[in-house]
Automatic annotation (TrEMBL):
It is found in: Membrane. It comes from Halogeometricum rufum. InterPro entries: Na/ntran_symport, SNS_sf, YocR/YhdH-like. Signal peptide: none annotated. GO terms for cellular component: membrane. This is Neurotransmitter:Na+ symporter, NSS family. Its main location: membrane. Pfam families: SNF. The chain crosses the membrane at residues 12-31, 43-64, 84-104, 139-157, 169-196, 216-242, 263-286, 319-344, 356-379, 386-404, 424-449. It comes from the Archaea. Keywords: Membrane, Transmembrane, Transmembrane helix, Transport. The keyword Glycoprotein does not apply. CDD domains: SLC6sbd_Tyt1-Like. It is a multi-pass membrane protein.
Amino acid sequence: MSERETWATRAGFILAAVGSAVGLGNIWQFPFKTAEFGGATFLVVYLVAVFGIGLPAMLAEFVVGRKSNLNTIGAFERIGYRNWRFVGVLGLLTGFWILSYYSVVGGWVLRYVGGSLTGAYFGDAQGYFGAISAGPEAIALHAVFMALVVGIVAFGIQDGIEKATKLMVPSILAILVALAVWAFTLPGATPGYAYFLSPDLSQLRLTVDTTPSFPWLTFGGPLAAIIPFAVSQAFFSLSLGMGAMITYASYIDGDESLFGDSATIVVFNTAIGILAGLVVIPLLFAQGVEPGSGGAGALFISVASAFADIPFGRVVGVVFFLVVLVAALSSAISLLEVVVSYAIDNYPVSRPQVAVGLGSAIFTLGLPSAWDTAWLTWFDTLAYQLLLPASVLGILVFVGWVFGRPGVEELLRGTGFGDGVGSLWLWLVRTVVFLGVVLTLALGLLTLFG
Ligand code: PHE
Ligand code: NA
């Protein structure tokens, strides 16, 4: 095995991790799931999940990655727990599954860059989305997007991933701020802000009833429907439960505060999601679109028809979708990197070979989603209600109960914090965070099969 790669700089790691986190999850999924699941109530649960569950869980993944310096499956073995490799396998499969349809949506974004340039969607935004989002054209776009991802990953972490993400973060922030300011000036935007930002506290209700028959428990109240999507949205958005953060942390060479790095990543990621919501949700209201009616297409249809209405709409459209494209690419590379990293750590294969082979397999798995958006929705639902919470739960149980103290020591390395901070984290992972994910998984499964 050749010398394992590392990040060139600490900033390189943070940028790449931000690049992984910030993606379609922020700009596409987050606004549309928020609109679908009750606006501000969803936002409240999401924020609690991001900071209360996502942040400690991200630290857990960083600990496993940096401690082992190995891919997401080998990591468990190297730190002494061969039998826990299944957690890595679950993450790897979750990433594989998600990338298959993520790439389909990436293909739509690619198409919208061109569509903005030529003004193709200006007359009929709804019809345009319908035409390009499913069927042969969507398959072709999915192929092109996947080819781009494979191309970047084939170049390796320093030349490919580190460089590709450097430009993304500043440009995405700038363009979202400008669009949010513009959305603010739209007539009719105000009810959008109310929907997005002022929670109806009476909605924060969860009831539990026991029943004599299987499944023995039933849940009620608005939160029963919101929690599985809001918490899983936090995982999806923070790139947790897919081995991505384990893999990226495994390339860290040296001591640095994992607290500082994770706080930066979480804050950036949340800010960009909220900014995207401040663009998309007022837009929906200004156009009189019922929130929650748009589904997966909401972002594309509403944003595109807004661009058709404004001066320089083509230029704005091209810039906007290009930025979304870069964000989607930097996330997709991290998903492919998880599997590629595993393969090159274990088999005598070259990086480009594996990137092409696995990229083709993921492309194939994405074919149903590209053929019909109903499949895409199904793939997405299964990821949210089952795969993501199950995979994060596996990591938490491992780090909390099995790995224990050595994990705390690894977490504290390079921080200057006393043991109290580490012990608090371990306690949280074992209690609040653990229970939150168990509840999410239970609610997800009950809605899936109930
Ligand atoms: N976090 C990314 C997003 O919000 C998606 C992603 C998930 C990327 C998992 C890598 C791993 O778009
Ligand atoms: Na994200």
